């Protein structure tokens, strides 16, 4: 991508196949520029696992190279594959130096892991290993991160302890890039307290660290998701929503669909479905729901897709196709016509995940004599059936007010929060379905007098904790009791901020042949910021 001019390019799928009887779980990419041919390239190396034993074929790789000029991938012949080396997962600073991209890895020398650098020359398209002296006592006690040194004229390795509050770190530099015998310890920085993990390096002595609150944050986790340019506002949406938690498991809505457990850093890309639209139609928009089937102990995703007529390019209003994914079976199934959602349209503006009583929910509307009347569409993850819940006339006009569906009182019922679209000071009405199974029990629970800080509701917790964004897309907590406002030091961009509660979990969602996908970005908001009663 080129963010300066808002351009994004999705690379074509490669057709790299693993050797017979093997599969891959992890890949490592390198990105750089070939100054000889004026071409941007991406090299990807994939690990190899044996299907028969589910064991890693250590230090063996499958490899492919993408060229922007040709817009295509090519596989490497066996003779051109990387030398036998393992790559450290912890070293993730992009290091492109002298037309070469680099990874920090290791080889096993008599039971000891010795650091080495793997490089790939973007011009010559060849791999090379660079030996590293014994720069640390043990990889179990220290982290080592490869970085570009002195404006990318050379490479350096920064070594620092994994544990402890005060950490001293050493900077090793390869003085002559082409002579691996010229490694020197350039300097040492005495213990400092602020650092946790190295995420960037610039020049010869500018470090970018993340720190860590020793108290594990049981607050909110927010995803900053890419907002692609117009050419991607189709099937290539990337991740435009996050749902959860269901027992600590989350779902990313977009392309591809992904389940994840951030507590143990697991990501599962859902297999593609083969749901086809009825003959003579196509689909532009889908709405997903994520939840847990407590009866079968299964995580499920339901997706409903709108229907457009090919002949006239008109929307077939209130008609849907639908599919359901089961994590247990790792497969999708289509719904029969009799089991499809009732005729209803879904509001695009209501995007807070609402999973209550084994059901996921969407706020929608039906057309009653030219007026849009709010309704709730629910899907029961256990019974696998849709249900429509009528909503009383809770607002005068959908043109003047937003309505957002939220879980109320720790997910025991549902609520609709209504607030004006326009204006500086906004009054907020909170409507609650007191008895979830009786749609006649809607009441206006309370009203909040005009607030200035809010622009859009992005989250709700308990019975009176609201998470808003303001006009600058800053995340703000409003606590209805004792009516306090806090700025949570998190900011979105281009309407990309999504918020969910964080829950720890040890549940594994991965199978051995799943691919690896990385989460784009997340921020934790600690308890002391959320606790307005201090």
TrEMBL record:
Coiled coil: none
Transmembrane segments: none
Domain of life: Eukaryota
F-box associated beta-propeller type domain sequence ranges: 2-190, 237-509
Protein name: F-box associated beta-propeller type 1 domain-containing protein
Lineage: Eukaryota, Viridiplantae, Streptophyta, Embryophyta, Tracheophyta
């Amino acid at each position: 991508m080129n963010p300066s001019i808002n351009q994004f390019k999705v690379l074509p799928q490669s057709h790299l196949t693993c050797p017979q009887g093997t599969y891959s779980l992890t890949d490592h990419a390198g990105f750089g520029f070939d100054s000889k041919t004026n071409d941007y390239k991406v090299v990807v190396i994939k690990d190899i696992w044996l299907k028969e034993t589910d064991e890693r074929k250590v230090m063996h790789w499958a490899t492919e190279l993408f060229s922007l000029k040709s817009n295509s991938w090519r596989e490497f012949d066996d003779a051109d594959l990387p030398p036998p080396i393992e790559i450290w997962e912890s070293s993730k600073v992009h290091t492109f130096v002298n037309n070469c991209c680099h990874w920090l890895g290791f080889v096993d020398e008599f039971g000891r892991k010795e650091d080495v650098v793997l490089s790939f020359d973007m011009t010559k398209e060849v791999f090379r290993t660079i030996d590293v002296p014994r720069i640390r006592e043990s990889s179990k006690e220290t982290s080592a991160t490869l970085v570009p040194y002195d404006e990318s004229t050379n490479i350096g390795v920064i070594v620092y302890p994994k544990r402890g509050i005060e950490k001293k770190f050493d900077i090793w530099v390869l003085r002559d890039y082409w002579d691996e015998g010229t490694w020197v310890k350039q300097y040492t920085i005495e213990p400092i307290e602020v650092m946790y993990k190295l995420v960037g390096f610039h020049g010869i002595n500018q470090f970018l660290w993340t720190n860590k609150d020793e108290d594990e944050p049981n607050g909110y986790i927010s995803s900053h998701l890419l907002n692609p340019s117009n050419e991607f506002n189709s099937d290539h949406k990337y991740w435009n929503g996050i749902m959860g938690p269901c027992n600590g498991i989350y779902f990313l809505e977009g392309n591809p669909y992904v389940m994840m457990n951030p507590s143990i850093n697991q990501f599962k890309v859902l297999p593609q479905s083969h749901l086809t639209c009825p003959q003579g139609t196509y689909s532009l928009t889908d709405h997903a729901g994520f939840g847990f089937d407590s009866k079968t102990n299964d995580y499920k995703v339901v997706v409903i897709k709108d229907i457009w007529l090919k002949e006239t390019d008109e929307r077939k209003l209130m008609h849907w196709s639908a599919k359901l994914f089961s994590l247990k079976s790792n497969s999708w199934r289509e719904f029969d016509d009799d089991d499809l959602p009732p005729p209803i349209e879904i509001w695009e503006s209501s995007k807070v995940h609402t999973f209550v009583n084994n059901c996921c929910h969407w706020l929608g509307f039906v057309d009653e004599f030219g007026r849009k009347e709010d309704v709730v569409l629910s899907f029961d993850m256990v019974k696998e059936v849709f249900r429509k819940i009528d909503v009383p006339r809770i607002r005068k006009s959908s043109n003047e007010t937003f309505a957002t569906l939220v879980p109320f009182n720790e997910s025991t019922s549902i609520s609709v929060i209504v607030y004006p679209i326009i204006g500086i000071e906004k009054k907020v009405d909170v409507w609650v379905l007191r008895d979830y199974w009786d749609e006649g029990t809607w009441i206006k629970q309370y009203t909040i007098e005009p607030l200035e800080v809010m622009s859009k509701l992005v989250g709700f917790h308990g019975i009176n904790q609201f998470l808003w964004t303001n006009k600058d897309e800053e995340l703000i907590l409003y606590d209805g009791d004792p009516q306090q406002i806090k700025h949570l030091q998190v900011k979105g961009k281009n309407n990309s901020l999504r918020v969910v509660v964080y829950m720890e979990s040890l549940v594994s969602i991965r199978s051995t042949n799943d691919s690896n996908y990385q989460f784009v970005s997340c921020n934790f908001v600690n308890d002391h910021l959320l606790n307005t009663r201090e």
